[in-house]
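As the next step, I selected for study a record pairing a protein sequence with its backbone structure tokens, which the following lines show:
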Amino acid sequence: MPHTCVLIPGDGIGPEVTSAARAVIEASGAPVEWVEGIAGASALEQGHADVLPEATVELVRTHGLALKGPCTTPVGGGYSSVNVALRKTLDLYGAVRPVRSLDGVPTRFEGVDVVVVRENTEGLYAGIENEITKGVVTSLKVATEVACERIARFAFEFARDRGRSKVTVFHKANIMKLSDGMFIRSAQAVRPEFPEIEYDERIIDAGCMRLVQDPTDFDIILCENLYGDVISDLAAGLVGGLGVTPGANYGARNAVFEAVHGSAPDIAGAGLANPLAILMSGVMMLNHLHRHHGDETCGAAATRIRDAYDRALVEGQTTRDLGGSLSTAEFTDAVIARMGT
């Protein structure tokens, strides 16, 4: 029985890369059907009052699954980020960013295989700010025991289910003793339920230094919201940038898989966009369908797609941002061709 996925093209290069991902997933034989939602600047262009129309949110609620391209948040006008709005509205509390070295993408490091797990709903990104008096502003960092325990359990379950061996918490509990202290205490409380998983804690500044010295020292990095945002991009830089890293946001009922790079409106429509990140996010989506819905066909399709783009990279079949000469469509065709050989 096919799974219905909400496809949110976004804007800028979003429609190009999501179209590429859809073509590859369909060619893989995965039993996925699509319904389209809109978000970002394209929603405003189509006459909606907000960058995230309620109809799009309802589609995700109905089907529980979405693949999302990059969305622009217009400057001014009071518009909120599509990403933040989706996470809050759908309670997508667990952000996951796998970061791995890719043969064919030369970087300073080899053998990187790290997963950043980020709490997605609170911390400084709760967005509670006040101007106390002229020239004096406070930003409130929110931490709740429920959210801290929930993301800690998520990280350990993720490690167990995917054969990972270690969870490392990045924190600043030496300074923020209450909020970050609660975060690490929650992880410590969950830890005994997963005796097979090694546990470690790093003060975030020292952890960042170690991460760029030897990323192979880490397996799963667990962070609160702001730290996770920074660490995710830092880790992506170790393997070639946001164009080669996928992303996912998980909640109790819904999951949204996304390219985490920008919408790059300056190259929109030119055929220059690299669809690799959203292809990788599509693979995460298919693996999610395999694990949580028992669909082995989706798992097999995910493996075919991953093997195909890995092979394309090794053979130098890449877009210009990775040193090649292929257009978006040509790279898509190269991946599809390698699924059949």
Summary: The chain has two domains: 1-93+241-341, 108-239.
